[in-house]
Predict the 3D structure of the following.
Amino acid sequence: MFDTASGDTHYLAPFNVVLFHLLQSNPGMTLDDMHRALASRLSLEPGPALLHQTDQALASLHRIGLLEAP
């Protein structure tokens, strides 16, 4: 992923790419909506593992500057 704001290029895990595109196309999405959409798009079971993976992905996207802090 190329960040035009910083000029940096980042490798994103496939889950993070899906999450990033999901948030770009639905900026006001709630966490519950996000989890349902991710489970549906990636054929994953909703539950604690998905919640943890989503939290980790959000933190990573924030850390590298691709998402602004809420």
Observations:
- Residues 14-63 form one domain.
- The chain is about 55% helix and 0% strand.
- The two ends are 21 Å apart (CA to CA).
- The mean pLDDT is 88.
